[in-house]
Amino acid sequence: MRLKRTQYCGSLTIKEQGTEVVLCGWVDRWRDHGGVVFIDLRDRDGVTQVVFDPQINGLDGASTLRQEYVIAVKGTVRPRPDGMQNKNLPTGEIEVYALELEILNSSQPLPYMLHEDSPSAGEVDESLRLSHRYLELRRPRLQKNLKIRHDFLRATREFYCAEGFWEIETPILYKSTPEGARDYLVPSRVHPGHFYALPQSPQTLKQLCMIGGIDKYFQIARCFRDEDLRADRQPEFTQIDVELSFAEESEIQSLHERLMKKIFKDVLNKEVSPPFRRMSYADAMAKYGSDKPDTRNSLTLVDLSAQGAKSEFQVYRAAMEKGDILKGLCFEEKEALPRSELDGLLKKVSPYGAKGITWVRIKGPGDWQSPQAKFFSDALKAEIEALLPFKKSAMLLMLCGDSKMVNNALSALRLEYGKRFGYTDESKYEFLWVTDFPLLDFNETDQRFYAAHHPFTGPNPDDLSTFMKSSDRKALEGVRARAYDLVLNGSEIGGGSLRIYDPKVQSRMFEVLGISAPDAEQRFGFFLKALQYGTPPHGGIALGVDRIAMILAGTDAIRDVIAFPKTQKATDLMSEAPSPVDTAQLSELSIKVIEKKAD
């Protein structure tokens, strides 16, 4: 390479007028105006227009340039002619008059156009984009997103270092301790039949750092979970992993409010104002039907179970008798929902297990329009209306059944109609701490408890006696965890807790979860042993880097903030991973592939 870059394309302004510069990058656009060639030269910093005059010796190669050729150009910065400025570009006032050209590499014709404004931009298949991810990364939008992610992580490291934390790396090859999502397993060549696991989280490792006296630890940690994917989840992901000793919940929460304040100021120049709102899990489920409510949305759910039991609607009465609940979502229609949509509401809630839903259009006191209106007396209508936030021109959607189904379904409708009718202020960044989660979650299918967060979460001190002594299912379901989630605009961006540091409490946790003492020893023996050597009280949090970056970048797809993402089927279309390996590799690892028989 003969010409050496002096500046990035996007950095030039009218202040550099008359300066001689060398720019390097890709040909973004190419235009030939009667022998004078204009190109837009692009690098990660922006775009600059370069003018090639055929009268200058050595620039005849400019006529051969095409999109995505890689070039270096030496030239003089000058103002664009009057009327030719581009106010939409930061460099739109200037151009570079080329003096020398070096073609560094050519490009094959592209499989699709990279310009977002090209007529076919929205028609490019997602699989084609993912299989050519290195081309997608040249798009300014993706480069902007990755820059936001970089700035976010830079600010994060600065914050923790200033707060006295040490950045410590924990192993990627670790022990399989299955409890929740599946592990990715890695066979050991030198120990045939034995496997490492890629960590789902450095949970026990960061707690061991506290036992080791590190006091304040953080890590930008890669984690792996072999589970079904969603739009906001990948098989490998990044989390900000944090642990500190001798801290209470309020200290950890306050610390991370300050972190969010710094991140939003440094990355977006936006002010967020601690302290963030706190809400118990019970209140979140009661009012919003979700443990990660979007509180920018002013709509809330209303418990109508008592009223349902008094109605003449047999469906409601039977449900209330067996302990189900009835809840309502009420909003003022900014435009009347068409009858076809009201009749189609069941399709919206059936994915959550709902068998039916009642709609009521309330035109005024006691004036109900609904196929089920006849089942409610005037007195009962008045009782229900008194509980609703809107008194006229209101739409009331009522759903009964088990609490999980009702909350999930109405929560989804709340988000949909809140956004549709303007109850959600999307200009805000609204943080929320959700606290007092249940410690345990009983699975009806397995007839056993699972840890609602993870099996190292400490029980609330007020519930410790019940946890340690009771065998009653209902009593154990009421035990609260010292856990807290950080929610932003309806997305859970972090979760943490104060940990169990008493070996007796940890052993009791494994017992309640149905993990026998020998099994606990086999899976967690190293950790249980460590707890016996003077473990300090400690706690921490893990923050989802990908989700936070997604919100900072203003996108709703997590793949937009990951350089090389996987598909919904956990495949990498670019490298074609996962892929078969030859038999020699398998033999060396003492592995044999067994083909699954068709069902």
Uncertain regions: pLDDT < 50 for 5+ in a row? Answer: none
Instruction: Return the structural class.
Output: alpha+beta
Query: Taking Cα atoms only, what radius of gyration do you get, to the nearest Å?
Result: 30 Å
Extended strand count: 22
Biggest sheet overview: 8 strands, mixed
Helix run count: 18
Helix content class: 25-40%
The chain-level mean pLDDT equals: 94
Approximate strand percentage: 15-25%
Strand order of the largest sheet: 6-9-10-22-21-20-17-11
Please state the overall shape, judged from the principal axes of the Cα atoms: globular
Q: What is the CA-CA span between the terminal residues?
A: 60 Å
Summarize the structure.
The protein is an alpha+beta fold and 599 residues long. Helix content is 29%, strand content 25%. The strands form five sheets. An eight-stranded mixed sheet has the order 6-9-10-22-21-20-17-11, sandwiched between helices.
Give a structural overview.
The protein is α+β, with helices and mostly antiparallel strands and 599 residues long. 29% of the residues lie in helices and 25% in strands. The chain is built from 18 helices and 22 strands. The strands form five sheets. It has an eight-stranded mixed sheet with strand order 6-9-10-22-21-20-17-11, sandwiched between helices. A five-stranded mixed barrel has the order 1-2-3-5-4. Strand 1 and strand 2 form a beta hairpin. Helix 3 crosses helix 17. The longest helix is centred in the first third of the chain and has 23 residues, at 140-162. The two termini are 60 Å apart.
